[in-house]
Amino acid sequence: MFKNILVPLDGSELAEEALSIATKFVETNNAQLYILRVVEVETLGVVPMHPYEVRLPLHTATEKWEQSRAYVEHKAQRYAVADRPIIPLIKRGSPAETILTIAEDYEIDLIIMSTHGRSGLTRWALGSVTERVLRHATCPVMTIRSAQTIKKILVTLDGSELAESVILPTLAIAKVLGAEVTLLRVDEVHTPDFAAVAVLEQVEHGMGENMVLAEYREAQDYVQQLVQRYSIEGVRLHAAIADGHVAKGILGFANDGDFDMIAMSTHGRSGIRRWVYGSIAEKVLRAYTGAMLVLRPDVENKIK
């Protein structure tokens, strides 16, 4: 599924962890790996010259370019896989826009990138570069937040075909990483309407309870059918359901189950946003401390 993979590097050790993961796709799928270093506008420093302060570049453009070129070429050699060299790229510009442009120009199938840099501080702020790439990338984007091995992946579903579009990319990643996958149906629709249940119980004892059980059985049948439909050799696939507030349900299930990555689509059924990116996906992205795979369903056909 993934033939061309892009790893943007910001110079941090965490960014290189994304590179370590990407090389596994080269080893198992013979994918072509590109690593990108974006040289931003020169950083200015204040030099005191009494009675004035003069702003001067900390590094000249040539020095910064050469340092970045040496860095990316070194990483390409260090992580190279036999018979499949890594292609280093160095570009000037804004990180988010440059990443998106390279992804289009090189027909990238998967972007793997870190969400913060050195010393636990945000170098490529989640609210800027990563989120802009997630919002506009024409391929799945996998974000890495730590060096933790990814062995358990949670796929979040809302019952729509568009939400299901993330399943195949997730399974492809799981097979490469040797991870198991759980398909989780989360929907506020299945939170019992206790007022309605009470009314039905007045009409006939047990009617309200039966309504609740029917809804749960429907959700269970849905995920079980998906498990049967998407079962592939080499990946353990499980089914689960949860109700209540969607974002809290996802985060609670992921944390309780010690999942290492959450995979989700950013839209819902019939082209209408049931899980709006600005609410559910963004809340999960900001609150979850593990890796994430985010897919815009309108790019599903591009990755088959």
CATH superfamily of the largest domain: HUPs
Residue share in β-strands: 15-25%
Described by strand count, sense and barrel closure, the largest sheet is: 10 strands, mixed
Tally of helical runs:
10
Radius of gyration: 23 Å
Order of helices and strands: EHEEEHEHEHEEHHEHHEHEHE
Under the CATH scheme, which architecture of the largest domain would be assigned? 3-Layer(aba) Sandwich
**How many strand units?**
12
First-to-last CA distance: 6 Å
Describe the structure.
There is one protein chain. With 304 residues, this protein is α/β, with parallel strands linked by helices. It has 2 domains: 1-145, Rossmann fold, CATH 3.40.50; 148-304, Rossmann fold. It has helices spanning 13-29, 61-78, 95-105, 126-136, 161-164, 167-177, 194-203, 207-230, 246-256, 277-287, and strands spanning 4-9, 32-39, 44-49, 52-57, 87-92, 110-114, 141-144, 152-157, 180-187, 237-243, 261-265, 291-295. The strands form 2 sheets. It has a 10-stranded mixed β-sheet, with helices on both faces. A two-stranded antiparallel sheet has the order 3-4. Helix 4 links the parallel strand 6 and strand 7 (141-144). Helix 3 runs parallel beside helix 4, helix 7 (194-203) packs across helix 8 and helix 9 (246-256) runs parallel beside helix 10 (277-287). The protein is elongated, with a radius of gyration of 23 Å. The N and C termini lie close together (6 Å). Residues 117-127 and 268-278 have low confidence and may be disordered.
